Amino acid sequence: MKNIYLLIIALGFISGLYAQPVINQNNYPAVGDTLSGTYDFSAAWNSGASGINATWDFSTLSTGSSTSFPYIAPSSTPYAATFASSNLTLQQLSVNYSYFISNASAFEITGIVTAFPSAVIRPFTDPQKIITFPFTYLNNFKDTARTANYNVSGGNHQRRVVYSETKADAYGSLQLPGITYNNVLRLLITSETIDSTFNSGNVFQNRSVSIDTNYYWISEDRKPYLLVLSKNVIDNGTPTIFAQYFSDPTWPTGIKDQQNIYVNVYPNPADNFIRIDIQEEYFNSLSEPQLILLDQQGKEVYSEKISSANTFISRNNLPSGIYFYKISSDKENISSGKISVK
Description:
Blueprint: H1 4-9, E1 22-23, E2 34-40, E3 51-57, E4 66-72, E5 88-92, E6 96-102, E7 106-114, E8 120-132, E9 135-136, E10 140-147, E11 150-151, E12 157-176, E13 179-198, E14 204-219, E15 222-223, E16 227-234, E17 240-245, E18 251-252, H2 255-262, E19 263-266, E20 273-278, H3 280-284, E21 290-294, E22 300-305, E23 310-314, E24 321-329, E25 332-341
């Protein structure tokens, strides 16, 4: 169970019944957000179908215990100096902390602090990449994360290595107690966490292996996830399974509203050019805004600085197809979506 609460919460165009969702930084937490959801520790391990236009029925999940944890600035925590590169912290039970780097390109875990039975500080020298942005159906990547040596009880120290894979294996409709969401993307994140213990003379003592399998259901216009179904197995022991869900997420991302108010990218589909209109007052507040186009595999195929509030960008030799665009300023994502090129 030691990894579940910290690491989980930490956490081609195909036409069909539902539009293909695209997940961006806006769908992940920021300072000032609060993680508040309902747990069901009696949930069955049944993730449902993969693929397009799937329907997942979790309407019978328990409506029992709930928790609430704040996302805060790392500078307000006792371990700010250790996690100086982080820009987000999840605080749990007042004394446990998960540290993150969140930007327009990715969401990463930079370290974890657990307080019981005594404080254990685990800074990652290679952060654990949870997701890259934008992310959509059939996108996937693998990652290896490592910590520095950290002290544990008995004068020993440990090293942690995490091998993980993130992929979007489905999208469709999700039924939760009292509500249904459409255009939901499902992520499958699997990880193997190896903790190796050494004594004060750096002699190997033992090793613990934790296997985590986590399904996340995420909506384009909500944050955080709508549902997570998690299974954790430590040293080949009995699996621990739980679900956490939000029947009415209170964190609307405002992505669509914000784009309609401030940014307009058109025509869609585009032919010879792409026009970007940004509300002038908003444009003047930006620092070197830039357009980036990615293909359906997430590879960057085009980028250009946006020089004015009303900009025309030539298609050049861009092949026909579906692309993901994102407009960023000072490494922060301010608008994103899909655009078709004839």
